[in-house]
Write a sequence for this structure.
């Protein structure tokens, strides 16, 4: 039996953030949604994005006055809203991508939850073994989902897609990770706030920020574009857990 992580935050992230910060829809300037992503721009120009993963978002931001955490559309909009609200604080973020910050050769068993093809290529180029799982994609690189639990138990490093927050699989994954494992959250959907570092052994959060009022990001998303299209308009940044547990 594995020794489980102690998760300091007791409720799932979106619930925790609503309880702490609330949702002020009057601060939302614009919402753009397309086939692949949804974006929220606030009145101060900050932009947050969240992958849709095949879910069509048709509701108005006004419905977030009464957020329903059982509604996947609400969860996508909330994820983008909190990204816009929290990702821009000057709280020690550094610029760079996951391979700039982490030496994955120092780990024995690396697992990726959520397929990031460019990152998989870097692992292959470096000759670092990697096991990849994804509930929504088909790809020869993927390990069958029936084996995910056993891989989580033995991993000492997990690259975890930040889409697990909105699709509500985040907590169940953390509850099946062993205490020695280090977790690296990844993707433009990341909410880069100190609260997210209270979950298990989340050590780094890698995400994206954009220039204020950059409507180009919203236009790309509205037209069905994804990470490859809008990422050049942003910067890759990351947040590090610094306090000893």
């Amino acid at each position: 039996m594995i020794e489980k992580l102690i998760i300091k935050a007791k409720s799932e992230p979106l619930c925790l953030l609503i309880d702490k910060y609330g949702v002020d829809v009057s601060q939302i300037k614009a919402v753009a949604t397309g086939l692949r992503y949804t974006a929220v721009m606030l009145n101060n120009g900050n932009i947050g994005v969240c992958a849709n993963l095949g879910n069509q978002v048709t509701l108005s931001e006004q419905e977030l006055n009464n957020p329903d955490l059982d509604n996947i559309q609400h969860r996508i909009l909330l994820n983008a809203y909190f990204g816009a609200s929290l990702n821009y604080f000057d709280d020690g973020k550094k610029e760079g991508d996951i391979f700039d910050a982490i030496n994955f050769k120092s780990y024995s068993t690396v697992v990726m939850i959520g397929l990031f093809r460019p990152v998989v290529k870097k692992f292959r180029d470096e000759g670092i073994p990697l096991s990849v799982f994804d509930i929504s994609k088909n790809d020869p690189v993927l390990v069958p989902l029936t084996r995910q639990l056993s891989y989580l138990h033995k991993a000492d490093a997990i690259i975890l897609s930040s889409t697990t927050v909105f699709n509500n699989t985040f907590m169940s994954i953390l509850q099946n990770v062993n205490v020695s494992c280090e977790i690296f959250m990844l993707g433009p959907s990341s909410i880069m706030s100190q609260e997210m570092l209270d979950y298990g052994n989340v050590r780094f959060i890698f995400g994206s920020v954009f220039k204020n009022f950059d409507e180009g990001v919203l236009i790309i998303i509205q037209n069905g574009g994804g990470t490859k299209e809008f990422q050049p308009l942003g910067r890759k940044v990351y947040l590090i857990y610094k306090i000893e547990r």
About this structure: The chain has two domains: 13-86, 94-209+234-240.
